[in-house]
Amino acid sequence: MITFRIKIGYPMLRMRAWRNSSISTLSSTHVMTILYHRLWLPIILAALVVRLWNAPQVLDLESLLQAGNGKEDHQERSVLVLTAHPDDEAMFFAPSILYLIESGWDVYGLCLSTGNATGLGEIRKRELVESYRILGVSADKVYHLDEPSLQDGMNIIWEPEAHILPYLQAHLEKQPVKHILTFDAYGVTQHPNHMNLPRAAQAIGPAVKVITLKSPSVLSKFTGVLWILYHKLFSRSDPDVAIVISSPRQWWAGIRGMLEHRSQLVWFRWLYLAFSRLMWVNELVLL
Ligand SMILES: [Zn+2]
């Protein structure tokens, strides 16, 4: 009888076997032992994935909003997602929308244009509704505008108070909310149609809290899910920033939302979906 090592991953298992034994002549106990030691790591990883699949993480959103016991007040937990183009909601805000919906918030969407820069406005209007539906917002809560002063375009400036505010006020009179979720002044992509939205929202006044999506730096924008690991290991908590991290299930819902925007799925959007950390994480700041 000899002793030899079978490398089975981690840890090494020391086993005994007869000199001329083959796997077919090993006893069932030996086979079970080998299977157990070969499979424990995959089993743990699978359990971890299952555990994480339904485990969104939200850091300090409630304290950021100082919502108090707003759970009792339906309107207190209402939010309008204010975007510029169909697909903004899925590409940038999906983690927040999914979290808010699953936490019982009343979520509405207002998209200020049909995204008609290339003549696809009619198609994109329908894609907007379908994307929101995937994210959990029904069609009757999704609105869009198609106004001459708010047309989609890199060279078209939407003046916050002259162009955006009147329509936003009119919308809020019909559908009041306590919060607006929108871009920050950098607008994630520096698209001029994004960048003036927070100023218009702020002009509504103190009755509506404005939550802005913090634009990631260029480098960290495409770190994907790895940013979560970086955040866990190295980031310090900031009381002024709430962090919404999607579970894998929610990430997939965000991807499916974006897939509804078929007219926009050019090759570089696939790269975006694969590597953007905004599909996983939203950092939110109260304006
Ligand atoms: Zn946009």
From TrEMBL:
<dbReference type="GO" id="GO:0000225">
    <property type="term" value="F:N-acetylglucosaminylphosphatidylinositol deacetylase activity"/>
</dbReference>
<dbReference type="Pfam" id="PF02585">
    <property type="entry name" value="PIG-L"/>
</dbReference>
<dbReference type="GO" id="GO:0005783">
    <property type="term" value="C:endoplasmic reticulum"/>
</dbReference>
<dbReference type="InterPro" id="IPR024078">
    <property type="entry name" value="LmbE-like_dom_sf"/>
</dbReference>
<dbReference type="GO" id="GO:0006506">
    <property type="term" value="P:GPI anchor biosynthetic process"/>
</dbReference>
<dbReference type="GO" id="GO:0016020">
    <property type="term" value="C:membrane"/>
</dbReference>
<protein>
    <recommendedName>
        <fullName>N-acetylglucosaminylphosphatidylinositol deacetylase</fullName>
        <ecNumber>3.5.1.89</ecNumber>
    </recommendedName>
</protein>
<dbReference type="InterPro" id="IPR003737">
    <property type="entry name" value="GlcNAc_PI_deacetylase-related"/>
</dbReference>
<comment type="similarity">
    <text>Belongs to the PIGL family.</text>
</comment>
